[in-house]
């Protein structure tokens, strides 16, 4: 069993605390129209300060079994991000042209959850050796608080998508692998799972579904110095679940959250490596 506690800080970057200006494009949530944003540095920024606590254990009750568990709690104060607009400019017809948005210390981030790992190998038989392993994570809380406002919990939803450290946060994510070894052959089938999350930024839907992807990798080491390999990622050619906030001109045009998913469809590979 182990316990660790650490503290740290992050000083503002040159872009964040200088007089620099960065141009960008954002979406007006009221009208759905794009507008120019000018992000300005702020020389009065305080550094972010972090506290981390981890409690966990790693057990090997048998020669073929490993179990691990880790609970974490992370607190970040003086979170640096884009503050409230200091200037809003409209055209002669009242349409939004651009906003000047300075960096600011927005508040705090407080998150906790756990991660678990396991590995179980079955006794070797004439058919080879089978091993089941996995690593899974659960986000229990992801709270972002601002001065004078109640904290927002982003765990299991996308409330914090537009905030520093924010995004869409499904509570569950994990990988489970079945591995088969037989003489010089090895094959691994992996299930990648991302849980659902509540859609809180668009009235079009209340939930974004879960996602599963299966990958297969096979290797052969029967030739001296050589390893021959081949595999297929996303065997069933699954597409990420649709999220309306990433379509129709809002944030992005691809229809899914790229911070969670990377969709390239079914992908096959073959190759070889040589060790001298």
What does this molecule look like?
The chain has 276 residues and is an all-beta fold. The chain has a domain at 124-274. Helix content is 1%, strand content 55%. It has one helix at residues 14-17; strands at 2-10, 21-27, 34-40, 48-62, 65-77, 80-82, 87-90, 96-105, 108-121, 129-145, 152-153, 172-182, 185-194, 197-198, 207-208, 211-220, 226-233, 267-274. Strand 4 and strand 5 form a beta hairpin. The longest helix is centred in the first third of the chain and has 4 residues, at 14-17. Residues 2-235 form the TonB-dependent receptor-like beta-barrel domain. Belongs to the TonB-dependent receptor family. InterPro entries: Beta-barrel_TonB, Beta-barrel_TonB_sf, TonB-dep_rcpt-like.
